Amino acid sequence: MSFWPSAPLREHGVELPGGIQGVARPRHLPQPAEAPRVVPTFSVCIVVRDRAVLLVNAVRSVLANSFPDFEVVVVDDGSRVPVTRVLDEAMLSADGRVRVFTQPPSGIAQARNVALRMATGRYVTVLDSDDELSADALARLHHLLASTGAHWVYTDYREVSGARARTIRLPEYPTPRRMLLGVLTRPRLPFKHSGTTIDRRVLDRIGGYDESFRLFEDIELVLRALRAGVHPRRLAHPVVLFRRHDGNVTRGRMGGLGFWFRLVDMYRPSAVPGAGLGIKALRALSEAGKWLVTLGR
Q1: Burial of 284 (0-12, 13-18, 19+ CB in 10 A)
Q2: What gap in Å lies between CA 209 and CA 73, rounded to an integer?
Q3: Would you state the torsion angle of the CA atoms of residues 123, 125, 126, 129, taken in this order, to the nearest 10 degrees?
Q4: What angle do CA 134, 65, 34 make, to 5 degrees?
Q5: Residue 65 CA to chain centroid, in angstroms?
Q6: Is 269 exposed, middle or buried (0-12, 13-18, 19+ CB in 10 A)?
Q7: Distance, C-alpha 219 to centroid of its chain
Q8: 292: exposed, middle or buried (Cβ count in 10 Å: 0-12, 13-18, 19+)
Q9: Angle at 178 between CA 175 and CA 181, to 5 degrees
Q10: Contacts of residue 247, Cβ cutoff 8 Å, sequence gap at least 6
């Protein structure tokens, strides 16, 4: 699966040549011979469309991290107000750790793949544009990765809704197969994609996001990794701040059932007749319940 975008791509407003390999650079800058780029430990990848204030908060939260070895890769997927202008007004565009790529509206899966393709770090940390990292997030992630040899990490998080806040503790699983079943059947997903950190070599092996999924492209990626035998480790500390608002509530839950049923058909852990139908029934009941809750918001 190729990460390379078919649409024109720009870094800080400069169109990048097609077929470029390695680190993308503006055409007008020479390739430095004496000071090659040092690969950072983390590439924090953010995809955004029209969330200016939230994006600024997200980027600032990454830049405030105590662990210094990172870059921030922002993909602007066709925002009406260009991200470059937003970050410039927030006085963040001069920070050399922040790299912005601009493209026409292409959808979240394609934009996430652009971020993966442009990232240069050993580990890719996904951050949604309306979330924030704690100041110790990358340090804690690095400690867990270094001490356990993990290749995929998901984290607990803090959920804020109005004046209320609570910590969401996620489950741990003894095997990839058990987690796969949990992803397919649990009413609340047993992971949060924002804050997930993935070893670059794993992504090279399993590929990026499936661009045929208009919804749940993150779930499909996790299920594919689990099917491939990747065993995610949980960071039992809330390093992501998730602010609940109307924009991050999936209003099309019932319409998204078709994608869920497709995931069940692709990744159900048993070939026993009827197993898939049972999982689909559980998922339909779960999504119907969530849909009813959103009607009351």
Answers
A1: middle
A2: 17
A3: -140
A4: 150
A5: 18
A6: middle
A7: 10
A8: exposed
A9: 150
A10: 51, 130
Q: How far apart are CA 221 and CA 154, in angstroms?
A: 13
CA pair distance 72, 98, nearest whole angstrom: 5
Nearest to 114 by CA among 257, 7, 246, 40: 7
Q: How many degrees, rounded to 5, is the angle at CA 196 between CA 194 and CA 199?
A: 145
Residue with tokens 């058909």: 265
User: Got the DSSP string for 229-289?
Assistant: T---EEEEEEEEEEE--GGGS-TTTTTTHHHHHHHHHHH-S--STTHHHHHHHHHHHHHHH
- What is the model's pLDDT at position 16? 54
For 88-145, how does the pLDDT look when each residue is reduced to its tens digit (9 = 90+)? Answer: 999 999 999 999 999 999 999 999 999 999 999 999 999 999 999 999 999 999 999 9
Angle of CA points 172, 177, 179, to nearest 5°: 30
DSSP 56-92: HHHHHHHHT-S---EEEEEEEES-SS-HHHHHHHTT-
Which tens digit of pLDDT belongs to each residue from 236-286? 999 999 998 665 545 455 568 999 999 999 999 876 667 889 899 988 888
Torsional sign, CA 21, 23, 24, 29 = negative
pTM of the model: 0.85
CA distance 109 to 116: 11
Task: Look up residue 178 and give its two tokens.
Answer: 């058990």
